[in-house]
Amino acid sequence: MKIGIIDYNAGNLGSVTSAVKALGHEVLVLKSFEDFGKIDSLVIPGVGSFSHGMEHLEKARLIEPIKLYFESGKTLVGICLGMHLLASSGLEGKECSGLSIVPGVVRKLNSAVGEKVPHLGWDSIEERTSISLGKQQFYFAHSYYFDVERDYESCISATFSWGDKNLPAIIKYKNCTAFQFHPEKSSHSGMKLLADVFKLRD
């Protein structure tokens, strides 16, 4: 299977590429829309701010191709910032529109609840659907979270605890799967999640 990974100057391209290759898939790094027709699944990686991420996607003329790829029904995966960019809008950097694939707003984590911002390091997540995670932990590195619109909360398949709230850790919406944590840096547990997502196209 050929996995396309978008290169938009937003961080963890190398680690995601290595992880996908370790799973036995071919990787095509995408810098322009011409290559979208050559791939079986698409990954939006990313580390950094929401507004800068959208600016880079716009500059590379990749916003519409990503939306069209999602509408085609093929597998779309978002990781960390890549998950956030799927939202309707974000407040990180400066308020701006997102890809509007999953309705919601990206907001800053609240440090007033006794939690340290950024949310950095290994943490457990709680399943809301049957994805068989058990007591495994995953690697987080973020200061913002995806506040999914109320009518779409059923797409949240796993959460992490933040104060007295449970915030989205994994979102599954139609043919899109998004991770707040970094599965590519989460050892065997994260690699298994990535493998399971790509198997949907086998």
Q: What does this protein structure show overall?
A:
The chain contains five helices and 14 strands. The protein has one domain: 3-Layer(aba) Sandwich (Rossmann fold), CATH 3.40.50.880. 23% of the residues lie in helices and 33% in strands. The model has no long low-confidence stretch (mean pLDDT 93). It has 202 residues and is of the alpha/beta class. Strands 2-1-3-4-14-13-12-9 form an eight-stranded mixed beta sheet, with helices on both faces.
Describe the protein's topology.
Layout: E1 2-6, H1 13-22, E2 26-30, E3 41-44, H2 50-59, H3 63-71, E4 75-79, H4 81-84, E5 89-90, E6 96-97, E7 104-108, E8 119-124, E9 126-127, E10 137-142, E11 144-148, E12 156-162, E13 165-173, E14 176-179, H5 187-199
Parallel strand pairs: 1-2, 1-3, 3-4, 4-14, 5-7
Antiparallel strand pairs: 5-6, 7-11, 8-10, 9-12, 12-13, 13-14
Which characteristics define this entry?
202 residues; alpha/beta; Rossmann fold; 4-stranded mixed β-sheet; 5 helices; globular
Strands side by side in the biggest sheet:
2-1-3-4-14-13-12-9
Residues in helices, as a percent range: 10-25%
The CATH architecture can be named as: 3-Layer(aba) Sandwich
Tally of contiguous helical segments: 5
CATH homologous superfamily classification: Class I glutamine amidotransferase (GATase) domain
Instruction: State the CATH class.
Output: Alpha Beta
Chain-averaged pLDDT: 93
Radius of gyration: 16 Å
List unreliable stretches of 5+ residues: none
How many discrete domains?
1
Strand-residue fraction?
Answer: 25-35%
* CA-based shape: globular
Looking at CATH, which topology would you report? Rossmann fold
Please count the beta strands (DSSP E, at least 2 residues each): 14
**Major beta sheet summary:** 8 strands, mixed
